[in-house]
Design brief:
By secondary structure, the chain is an alpha/beta fold. The protein has 27 helices and 20 strands. It is globular, with a radius of gyration of 28 Å.
Amino acid sequence: MARRQEDEAERDAFATPSSGHEGHEVDESGTPDRTWGGVCTTDVDRDSPQAGNTGNVGTDGGSSGSEGLFSPANNEVAEDDLLGAHPGSFFKNSELGTTARGAGIIGHKKPYQNGQENSPATGAPVAVPGPEGEFHLLGPPGTGKTTALTRKWIPKAIARYGPKAVAVCSLTRTAAAELASRQVVALPRERVGTLHSFARRALADILGKPELAQIAENVERWNEEIAGGRPELRLSGSSNGALDAPKASAGGSSGFTPEDRRRAARASQRAAPTGDEIMADIEVLRHRMVPVDDWPSSLLPLWQAWQAWKHDEQLFDFTDLISVALENGTAPPLLDGVAVEALFVDEAQDFSALEMALVRSWQEHVHVCVLSGDPNQSIFGFRGAEAHAFHDAASFSAKRTYVLGQSYRLPKNVQAKAEAWLTTASSATPLSYKPRESDDAGTVVRVPDTMVARHAGSLASQVASELKRLEPMEGDHNRVMVLASAAYILKPILAELRRRRILYCNPFQADRGDWNPLKTSQRHIVTLFVGPCPYLTGEDGPGGREPRLWSWSELKQWTDVLQAKGLLMHGAKANIIAREAKKRGRVIMDHGDLERVFVDAASIRADILPMIRDPKRVAETLNWLRDQMTASHARRLSFVLDVARHDIRQIMAPPRVVIGTIHSVKGGTAGTVFLSPDISRKHEEERRRSPEGFDGIIRLFYVGMTRASSKLVLLSPTRRGQRLTPHVQW
């Protein structure tokens, strides 16, 4: 009955017809997926089979779901519900506002003057919400937060305001693309993107389109003209370690400052920090909005040179896009003259203090702002993210907080273990949600005799056993994850999986070759010769199912890896490229074409094609393919070919073993998760230095635990001689 009344309330409140819009590309203009401050992935919910279930609100009850938020009849909401106890309650102890002398803002040496009320204590902007203000949608693990946004909340906002007046932003292009692809009612491409892309367009309206400093050609100029041979100034323009425990972690949630790191480096006789490491420290401090005057002096030479060079060249780095947009009091960019009325921010727990300050300054210009995320999954403190910058239950109105109350991923026992673990963090946010409704209560296993470094063989055997057990499962639930807090911890199991010819991947970090030995192109090259491909199954013809030759596009793909001498006619590769371009690759070769491509076309026709088409001669085919490859391609494909000879089925589908750091798989799901308790000495220092550092480690392993949809396996800490390496205690 209650559910039916809720559905009726939704229909009444959101009866305004929606305005559809075809297409939902994502604007990637000027949008970094990674910066020197580190990479931030997002928690993309793939578990919810339906639109997100919306549970009760905080401890005050309130309404459930998005009912009434965007309703034309909702203009008489009590002021306390809209503004909370005080607008400044959006900032906890002014943590977001220590920018009186504004680190990260070009030329900024005075309190903000952007039309907002300024704090007399710090000179920082005090959040002034719009007419309906700020609402929080909290999604514990597996509760379908992204589904709730894209199928329920955002469509209702579109029905109320129209698609051009609704904007949806996240932190990375990958997350923004996921949001766009799942829209029930499509938004214009300019209305789904990252905060950086929105800030860049907002700045373009008042300053002209900012040119970015961190593109390859500009970084190269910096290194040539400014850095020269000084390693402490040279920059790569790439990430500093991304989702692993970063080399540089300035303060942030851990309390481990850049100067601490430098002292530790000197004590251990490490080399002096590189330009990338120093820039990573700078970026974290900028994102935490720490005044330049409070920075370690060791950061200033690079910072001052970088600022002067950007000023002379009229360039913006990625952080400038946010800080300058904040300083200039921008509003979310217009679209065809239409202003944003409803602003949605996904994965808000991953936003830094600086990014959150910009979001909240934009609230002055919109009717409603919905921040979604889970403060208990805030694990990017190393880039400046602060869980309580997004949601502080002690100061944010419970009446404007909506908690999704049903997990579609976590079984009862896994959820119980994860929640018990989370309670050891002093800053955990209590969120009540139900485990997955299933006869399978899930399994949590502690294996005291299995550690990644010393028992990789035993671990690989357990992984293989779980792969077999999970075969009947569908989707992500038939996968196995092996996770650790840092990449180096995984090296022994990577080597063992390769030795056993078990393919693995990390689809969330596809650019890492060590985690993704099978590239899509490599799989395609192999499957052009073996498996359920056209040369085995053929095509329907006058005589029934008949094998066919390659298309020109397919021929180009595999001849690219072959050595031409003795196999291909002189000029054959150029001929293939020309044919592929002219005929757009889809035209099938005929047998006469073989004469113009291969030196010994008769042998190809009589010997090689029958071998390729015979499923019983897979190993022979792969050996022939290896022998015809160039040396470099043979080395690159050796593991893939070895796996294919062992079990061709592994090549025909994406690998079911996912391996990586906890940071890298945030948002992912697997049937079974193997979790190592080992932590780096850097993490150990962070844990000991401050309560927040300890809590950050707890949240990190909480995220790891909550990837499991069936079984959680807690491994043993590594023992080196009589000593255990730093680790968490399960």
